[in-house]
Amino acid sequence: MTIAQLWAMAPPGYLSSPQRPAFHLLVLVTSGSTTHTVDFEEHHLAMGSMLWVRPGRVQVFGEQATGDLVLFQPDFLIPGTHAAGLAGDHGGPVEATGPFEPTRRALRREYTRAAGSGRPTVVQTETLRHLLSLLILELARHAPDPRRPDPTGLDARFRDLLERDFATAHDVEHYAQRLGYSARTLNRATQAATGESPKQAINRRLVLEARRLLAHTDQPVARLARRLGFRDPSNFSTFFIVHTGQSPTAFRATARPAGGS
């Protein structure tokens, strides 16, 4: 859809409130500019910019610009391709400015043609999948890659396991044992790949999820604490204050505008 179509269908104030969609979102700005906030960090997008937000991220739309939005489910990309692998990455949003316009136009033309046919044919669907993959690969080509080399793949496996277990396992030994390495070896791998220790990665992931839940849900703090593996809500509050400088209640008040949903 176009960005204008989204603004036309959204209730007043909805887009300025935290959202957490379960699908991928590509924002392509063709005119004007906007600020799109993803996981509490602002991304300033101007003409020619594209931003890729993966599922589960908390985001807030800024001012309206002109351009397209591409929404797709995680399983739409062709399995086994590099584009599908990028879609499964647990990293943050990907942003770049580049020559995306020809592929954007081709994808829009094909989508309009397929939507107009009522039920897309196999050929139309495959064409959409390939054009979308091409757009993602073009984005990856022009976006800076903050990752360092991970020759053994241990850091990547740790990140996958962390994404699965962070709410139930807060100790480094759990991840080291599951991966079949010592805690010292795991620490060397994560430090080399990202510059942070496994414990720092665990804490950062917990804080991020806590912030997402506080901003996007109305669940009581005690319930969120249990959901994140803290038996005592006071321990969770202390943990959150140490890592953010705010209490959970204070953060929720600043993250959710008055009247937001």
UniProtKB/TrEMBL annotation:
Record keywords: DNA-binding, Transcription, Transcription regulation
Keyword DNA-binding part of the UniProt annotation: yes
Alphabetized PROSITE patterns for the sequence: HTH_ARAC_FAMILY_2 (PS01124)
Domain HTH araC/xylS-type: 156-254
Cross-referenced InterPro entries: Homeodomain-like_sf, HTH-like, HTH_AraC
PANTHER family: ARAC-FAMILY TRANSCRIPTIONAL REGULATOR (PTHR43280), TRANSCRIPTIONAL REGULATORY PROTEIN (PTHR43280:SF32)
Protein name as annotated: AraC family transcriptional regulator
Organism ancestry: Bacteria, Bacillati, Actinomycetota, Actinomycetes, Kitasatosporales
